[in-house]
Write a structure and sequence with these properties.
CATH class of chain B: Mainly Beta
Shape of chain B: globular
Number of strands of chain B: 32
Strand content of chain B: 35-45%
Oligomer: heterodimer
Number of domains of chain B: 1
Low-confidence stretches of chain A: 23-31
Order of helices and strands of chain A: HHHEEH
Number of helices of chain A: 4
Radius of gyration of chain B: 21 Å
Structural class of chain A: alpha+beta
Shape of chain A: elongated
Number of domains of chain A: 1
Structural class of chain B: mainly beta
Largest sheet of chain A: 2 strands, antiparallel
CATH topology of chain B: Neuraminidase
Distance between the termini of chain B: 39 Å
Mean pLDDT of chain A: 64
Helix content of chain B: under 10%
Mean pLDDT of chain B: 97
Number of helices of chain B: 3
Bound molecules: fe (ii) ion
CATH architecture of chain B: 6 Propeller
Strand content of chain A: 5-15%
Helix content of chain A: 25-40%
Distance between the termini of chain A: 24 Å
Radius of gyration of chain A: 17 Å
Largest interface: A-B, 28 and 44 residues
């Protein structure tokens, strides 16, 4: 699955509000219409489970395991990010075995 | 004051950890096979203090040895610094005293004459002892149960080279070790001393010869009849050291050379073959077929290491710093010094590849190594934007059919060097486990993955979870319980 652009919390909540305002029938199919409004990829993930959506770092997170566990971010979240901006040469200048 | 804040690469997951650790009965996801008894020993580095110079090579990082001890499905972890004279001197001074990679002229005067080695490259189990290896010095003996450093080892005074390779080869037929040192007679000498050491740890043979130019002879190939010695592009001189430069520079005008010496031969028997610009840092396997000597290796077109810059000032070329599995064939009957090269797979791979060591120097079929599959997902929102910079697969490359089978580590991880562990009681090539360390950038922790080497597509059978980041290894080796006096 390819991940789409991140969805900001504000966008997410506004879309949720619109969908809720539109009709309650969106829940008839187990919430997938709501999810589709937010992200088609989330629908793909949620097909065979009960999804739980959490907000973390201004982005929604879908638990698709079926265990209905919201996402609790570990301390090291996105720990590759601090070096992501480096050029290939700068990156490999120290990190040649990672 | 210890301050790593100005080191651009030593952040996030890659920040130094700087602690020693013991974890008993590690957390496991899945089930550790109960027929794996022994230890997976990894050697790499962690900076005790920041490098003295910002352009120093990562190869100067202080050695750190760590071990996953497997016993009947239970795994304990232990990590220790290699307590070299350099480590002790730095710790006593509370700062980095040592300068550029393998350049003593850049050191603090207080450590003049001290062994500069950091012992950060390869762990070795041989003749009942555990060693750390670094190609600029003798091996260091390590206590296999405590991982405490015992000290340099010279095989009862019979190993005369001042240096010892990080890639000795143990012949699976005879049990003897073929090893060598380059710059063997001292800094900036072009001497190589080649040794045979029997399985009791006794030196039985020494041959001294010179290479076409002083270069990094990091690895060799071994066949049942020959030793294959690649020499390529890295150059050095006393002048450049006195100018305060890092030990190696890259000279793209230098041809690569490959020396072939019979295992029972003398210096006069070496035949040097000559080829275009290449870098054969690591090898996979070699064999002799009649009058032909064959080496398979992941070979780069040019300089793989940006921290060893070009001597002519030209920029480092990331495109040429990609390794492809290639076959070099040397015809001992040929009249000229050329050899043939074939690219066996059209995809670039990690050059830290392995084979089933029971087939080293013998006809074989499978090579294992990590690679990047850009079609696989990467969750940059949980792991950080390292898409394309992660080794997300281990591949088993079938050299007979050209086919590949793959293990995918998941969308937040990157894999370090692969290791193959034979299944106990089996002699079939490739029957066993593929193991290796995964860096989980989302969870900020290291995970040892274990997969069935014949069913890589099925995913791992177990993950041993560390609740922290373990230092990046250079090389790791599986050591069976009968190889070392484990408690
Ligand atoms: Fe190596």
């Amino acid at each position: 699955m390819r991940r789409e652009e991140p969805i900001k919390r504000r966008d997410f909540l506004s879309k949720v509000a619109i969908v809720f305002a539109g009709a309650a029938v969106v829940w008839i199919d187990g919430g997938r219409t709501l999810l589709r409004a937010v992200s088609p990829a989330l629908v793909e993930l949620s097909c065979n489970s009960t999804p739980v959506v959490s907000i973390h770092m201004d982005r929604p997170y879908l638990d698709a395991t079926g265990r209905a566990v919201p996402y609790y971010a570990p301390i090291g979240m996105r720990s590759g990010e601090p070096v992501a901006h480096l050029t290939e040469e700068a990156f490999r200048s120290q990190l040649c075995f990672v | 004051m210890v301050d790593f804040s100005h080191q651009p690469t030593m952040k996030g997951f890659f920040a130094p950890t700087r602690f020693e650790a013991d974890v008993y009965d590690c957390e496991v996801i899945g089930k550790v096979p109960t027929d794996m008894n022994g230890a997976f020993v990894r050697l790499g580095g962690d900076w005790l203090y920041p490098p003295k110079f910002s352009d120093d090579a990562p190869f100067s990082v202080d050695g750190y040895i760590n071990m996953f001890r497997f016993k009947n499905g239970i795994v304990d972890y232990k990590g220790r610094w290699v307590k070299t004279p350099r480590y002790k001197a730095d710790l006593a001074a509370h700062k980095q005293l040592f300068g550029e990679y393998r350049n003593p002229f850049t050191d603090d005067p207080s450590v003049k004459g001290l062994d500069r080695t950091v012992q950060n490259t390869t762990p070795l189990a041989f003749a009942g002892k555990l060693f750390t290896l670094k190609e600029d010095s003798l091996p260091y003996e390590i206590n296999c149960n405590t991982l405490e450093t015992i000290g340099p080892y010279n095989f009862h005074g019979k190993y005369k080279s001042l240096t010892f390779t990080a890639h000795p080869k143990v012949d699976p037929v005879t049990g003897e070790m073929i090893c060598y040192g380059y710059e063997a007679a001292g800094l900036e000498t072009n001497d190589v001393y080649l040794y045979t050491i029997n399985k009791k740890g006794e030196v039985t043979r020494e041959v001294r010869f010179k290479v076409p130019y002083i270069s990094m002879v990091h690895d060799i190939g071994l066949t049942q009849k020959h030793v294959i010695i690649p020499v390529f592009g890295f150059v050095t001189s006393m002048e450049r050291l006195k100018e305060g430069k890092v030990h190696w520079g890259w000279d793209s005008t230098r041809p690569s050379y490959v020396g072939i010496i019979p295992r029972d031969g003398e210096a006069k028997d070496i035949r040097w073959f000559k080829g275009p610009e290449r870098a054969t840092v690591h090898t996979l396997n070699g064999r002799t077929e009649g009058d032909k000597v064959i080496l398979e290796a992941p070979i780069f077109d040019s300089n793989p290491f940006p921290f060893f810059p070009s001597v002519d000032g030209s920029p480092w070329d990331a495109q040429k710093a990609r390794a492809y599995i290639r076959r070099n064939t040397f015809d001992l009957n040929s009249k000229d010094d050329g050899f043939t090269e074939e690219k066996l797979f059209e995809m670039n791979v990690s050059d830290l590849g392995r084979v089933d060591d029971r087939y080293l120097s013998l006809p074989y079929r499978y090579a294992f190594t990590a690679y990047t599959d850009r079609e696989r997902p990467f969750d940059q929102w949980r792991a950080g934007n390292l898409q394309g910079r992660v080794s997300n697969c281990y591949g088993r490359f079938d050299l007979a059919t050209g086919k590949k089978s793959s293990y995918f580590v998941g969308d937040t991880c990157s894999l370090q060097e692969v290791c193959f562990v034979p299944r106990k009681g089996s002699s079939e090539e490739g029957d066993g486990y593929v193991i290796g360390m995964a860096s989980n950038y989302a969870e900020m922790r290291s995970e040892l993955i274990i997969a069935d080497a014949q069913r890589l597509e099925d995913g791992d059978v177990a993950r041993v979870i560390l609740p922290f980041r373990s230092t990046a290894q250079v090389h790791g080796r599986w050591m069976d319980e009968d190889q070392l006096p484990f408690a």
